[in-house]
From TrEMBL:
Boundaries of every RGS domain copy: 336-464
Record-linked SUPFAM superfamilies: Regulator of G-protein signaling, RGS, Winged helix' DNA-binding domain
Matches recorded under PROSITE patterns: DEP (PS50186), RGS (PS50132)
Name of protein: Regulator of G protein signaling domain-containing protein
Stretches for region Disordered: 466-494
CDD domains per record: DEP_RGS7-like (cd04450), RGS_FLBA (cd08708)
Record-annotated DEP domain positions: 213-299
Any GO BP annotation: negative regulation of signal transduction
Bias-annotated ranges (Polar residues): 483-494
Organism (species): Fusarium redolens
Amino acid sequence: MHQTSSGLLRMADDDRPFTKDFEDLFSTLIVSLLPLSAYRVRLTKIEYTFLSEDAINNLSSLKFSQANRIRDPNNPSSIITTTITSTFSMAKDVARSTCQRFVEARLIELAGGKYQQVYTMKGSVWLLTTKGIAVLDYFCARNGIYEKQVSELADLGVIQLLHIERDPQTDKLIHDQDTIDVIFRRFVSAGGPNFKSSVKLADSDLLQDYRDGLGGVKMAAELMVNGKKYRNTFTGKATTDWLMDYSTVMDKRETVEVAALFVEYELVEPVAQDWTYMSQNPGCNIFQPTEYAIYQLIQGGRDLINGSGLRGRVSEREGGAISQRNGINVDSSTQRLNEILNNPAVRLLFREQLRDTHCEENLSFYQDVHEFLPRCKAATRAAQKARNLNAMDGIKEIMAQVYGIYNAYLAPGSPCELNIDHQLRNSLATLMTKVVDQDIAMIYPLQEAMPLFEDAQTAVLKLMASGRRPNPNRKQDSVPKFLSSSKYEQQLRN
């Protein structure tokens, strides 16, 4: 059974690709370039590199296939292979512009140590940054791609990217004050300020000092500005560099947006502003992302990193069944989980907890289904009202998404296989093995898929709430353990 999907790259209203689509496109490109080669740059051979023209040529016609072999529920002796193929195609000038975005997102860089921000059509040698490796490694793990070179790249050092929550409909950053507090803690470093060894060091000389991404932005312990001494200072450029290199932000404009909120929420303040930049960019009077703009940590920021946590801790109320939803008793752990999922700042921390205990697939599945269900309902309604080519293309895209979620999380042996009820798994397998010959007929299995996916989502919610794992060797990741974790105690404190 083969399902093909070809859709447009979703764009946000600021002409920026949706972050997840952008990361998937980048990772698909790199997988298509494997094995990466060793090219010489100024007489030095550099491993794991690729040429400009190779990436552009591959982007012009890019395909990514996922295959999953499952036993036919109606005939145990028969094996059914489901394959989903996503295709990307673009003109070469668009492909070059896309690669330019990869450079600006800090996913790739020019090999040989020469700093260059322009992606050329041919001749240049490129390699993945530590951020690019982290994005690729996550993509391969999620999609069950086992490539020797990906493991080798990961062994060179995968940084822990700060995952910043986004609105699934608009892809805009969630920037309420609690979420900004969480980002700021990582930005400064929970272990305390990360001081420069010398105030004379340029920001560009410090990038290699961050290593795993857990250290905060480099600060000057003391700095004289216009004859006055300031403590715990850093530049606007260092701020945006750190956010670009060590978070899931892919557009510099968003780093300026986040940094401006550091100022607005009274965590830092400017001690020297870049008036030239401000005159050229009238909207940047709060924060300027340059080496001439200098900011210092102030009392609000110090209080935050020294113990004052989020302003809205998820409560640990005791009790048994406290509410009903869809006829199912919801106990206190499940209610607390719902509070976590509905609070972007706490959800960000919870994701880190799940990643540490190798259970992030639970939250990823929940969010994928949460995004999928309204899109599926809208697409089936549109196709039933107007059975034209555009509506059917939408159905094909949603059907491909169904297979993608199923192959990633629910199929036996899938890379992120979840622990769900055997009967539910069989029902899903039966649905996924249905052969659809006509476009309009796809609507009916989609209508069957929605309640099954909702049931699977409910099962995963219970799993996250209780922390039960099928593998006794893996750590427990229950909600109570998260709420009582010493690692997050300060952030979760009122």
